[in-house]
C-alpha cells in the first residue's frame, strides 16, 4: 500500500504547519496534503517524510523542503492545464505536486538515475508528466512556450534562453545565486521584450550544474 492513515495524519499536520508559516494558497496546500511525500524519500529518512526539511536523495541531491515547494508553487500562480517546465526533477516530488494541481508538467534532470527513478515513482502514483534526461540550461523549446518555468537548483543568473521559452504573461521562479544562499526570484514576461523581476527572500538549494551524468 502506497499511503496509510498514519501518513495522511502527518501530512495534515505538515499542511497546518505550512499555513502557520504563511502559505495561504489553498490549491497548493491541497496538493501537498494529497501527494504522499514518503514515497519520494530515501528509505533511510522515511520517518522524516512529513518534517518540514530537505533530505538527501541519491546522486548527492536533495528533495526540497515542503515549505520551499509550497513557496515556489505559490509564486508560479498556475491554473489547471497550464504548461510548466521544471528544471531539476530530483525525486519528482515537486513535479507530482504540480501534476496534482492539474498542471501539464515537463521536467528535466541531469542525472540519469534520478530521471529514471522519478519517472517510475510518478507512474506508480498515477501522475502524468513528461520526463527528460538532459541539461536544463537548454530548456525544452520544442514543448514551449510555457506558462511557467520552475528551477529547483541554485542558478547564478537566469539565461535568456530560458526566459525566451516563457509565454507572454508567463512566470519563471528560481533561486538565484551561487552556492551558500540564493534569493527566490520571479521573472514575469509582461510583454514580448519586457521582463519584470521581484524577489522573495533567502533559500538554500543544491547548485544547477552544466551537462548530464550517466549514472
Ligand atoms: N525538484 C526536486 C528537488 C531537486 S534538487 C524535488 O522535488 O525533489 C535539484 C535537482 O536539480 C537535482 O536533482 C540536480 O541533479 C538537478 N539539476 C542540477 N543541475 C541541473 C541541470 N543543469 N539540468 C537539469 N537538472 C539539474
Our measurement of the CA-to-CA distance between the termini, rounded to an integer number of angstroms, reads: 29 Å
For this structure, what is the CATH homologous superfamily of the domain at 65-203?
Answer: Vaccinia Virus protein VP39
Which cofactor or ligand species appear?
A: S-adenosyl-L-homocysteine
**Low confidence ranges:** none
What percentage of residues falls in helices of 4 or more residues? 25-40%
From the helix content, strand content and strand pairing, which structural class follows?
alpha/beta
Strand content: 25-35%
What can be said about this structure in brief?
This protein has helices at residues 5-20, 26-34, 66-76, 93-100, 112-125, 160-163, and strands spanning 55-56, 62-63, 83-87, 104-109, 130-133, 146-151, 166-176, 182-191, 194-203. By secondary structure, the protein is an alpha/beta fold.
Structural account:
With 215 residues, the protein is α/β, with parallel strands linked by helices. The protein has a domain at 65-203: Vaccinia Virus protein VP39 (Rossmann fold, 3-Layer(aba) Sandwich). 29% of the residues lie in helices and 26% in strands. It contains six helices and nine strands. A seven-stranded mixed beta sheet has the order 5-4-3-6-7-8-9. It has a two-stranded antiparallel sheet with strand order 1-2. The radius of gyration is 16 Å and the shape is globular. The site of S-adenosyl-L-homocysteine has 24 residues, from strand 2, helix 4 and strand 4. Residues 61-64, 87-88, 90-91, 93-94, 108-111, 114, 135-137, 152-153, 206, 208-210 line the site of S-adenosyl-L-homocysteine (SAH).
